[in-house]
Specification:
It is built from 15 helices and no strands.
Length: 350
């Protein structure tokens, strides 16, 4: 038996080497990580929806399930863009116009206290700071555009995969019967475990999104904001992004709040977002993740902190699945089965 045959027979060693190769490949393509993860999330949710419908209606093809859902999502996005983007633009223009009128008014020019503030702003070179801030905003907008492009591509890829999920599964099974079937069987082994853990985390994030949306909707109703249903739908979609989604929702909510009650309502919205952000970060995330993954809250909290530091926002999404994934490989803990309690017996000393 040559070296290759001995390597293939040693299942533990070959799986370990393959895992290292996969980690290296992920590191090399880390710039495309957002595209990969978004595609995986959209595809996973779509396939789960198809499976749920097919349990009650086995003869229904995936295309008849997924096509109406995707059309509804596109229609909702078009509705939000057509109705709220012009409003956001107009409110932004009004804010800058009001600031300009306030600055050019006679009261401001003749006020000695405001004149002192103006001279101080001139001394700290405010113009250059504003230019630097504008350039940062432009960079942020370009990064948002890149994220939007990734979302659109992931959305399309998930639709194509889910609409032909049976054909994709049949095509994938052919690799398990190829000459190097051991590679694909090991990849299938790792993929199945990761999908299992990732699915649990997605369920937890959905529960967090529901709680965030309820808290935000109650606040918007109390403030008598217009278009509460559309705003609630936007908050729910953004809440699927852990932690960052709540902060992103602050921008459109602030503009709408300014149009209703001025700067006072904007302050209310900021306070609401801060409170919800604290609730999500320090209560909902650890509590739901712990209950769904059967991990102690302490470990869940530590993993969220470390993964966010190492991987950024995506670390809050994939940190827990990666941690449970490695625990499952090591045979320490697995989602879906309770960790057996071992009794430690002590021998009596003679």
């Amino acid at each position: 038996m040559n070296f290759y045959d001995r390597f293939v027979e040693n299942k533990r060693l070959r799986r370990f080497i393959l895992l290292l190769i996969v980690i290296g490949m992920i590191y090399l393509f880390r710039s495309m990580m957002s595209l990969f993860l978004l595609t995986f999330i959209f595809t996973f949710l779509s396939v789960q929806l198809v499976r749920v419908v097919q349990k009650k209606f086995p003869r229904v093809k995936p295309i008849w399930v997924i096509a109406p859902v995707y059309l509804m999502i596109i229609a909702l996005l078009i509705f939000v863009i057509a109705n709220y983007v012009p409003q956001l633009i107009s409110q932004t223009v009004k804010m800058f116009t009001s600031l300009q009128k306030f600055y050019e008014s006679k009261e401001v020019r003749s006020n000695p206290y405001l004149d002192i503030i103006y001279n101080y702003l001139q001394q700290i070179n405010l113009d250059n700071q504003i230019k630097a801030a504008v350039s940062q905003v432009v960079n942020y907008i370009s990064s948002v555009g890149a994220v939007g492009f990734n979302i659109v591509i992931s959305f399309l890829l998930s639709f194509f995969y889910t609409s032909q999920v049976e054909q994709m599964n049949a095509f994938g099974r052919q690799f398990l019967d190829s000459k190097y079937s051991w590679i694909f069987s090991d990849l299938f082994y790792y993929g199945k475990k990761f999908v299992n853990t990732f699915g649990v985390v997605l369920e937890a994030q959905l529960m967090i999104a529901v709680v965030n949306t309820l808290l935000t909707t109650i606040t918007l109703l109390f403030m008598k904001m217009p278009g509460v249903l559309a705003l609630a739908a936007m908050v729910f979609v953004l809440s699927l992004i852990p932690v960052a989604g709540v902060i992103i929702s602050l921008i459109p909510l602030s503009f709408v709040a300014y149009s209703v009650g001025g700067i006072r309502y904007v302050i209310y919205i900021v306070i609401m977002i801060v409170i919800i952000h604290l609730i999500e970060t320090y209560f909902l995330n650890p509590q739901f993740m712990s209950s769904m993954t059967h991990l102690p809250i302490f470990f869940t909290f530590v993993v969220l902190i470390v993964s966010e530091e190492l991987l950024g926002t995506w670390g809050l999404i994939i940190g827990i699945p990666i941690f449970v994934f490695f625990l499952d490989i090591l045979g320490v803990h697995s989602i879906g089965r309770k960790t057996p309690k071992r009794r430690i017996k002590f021998k009596k000393s003679l």
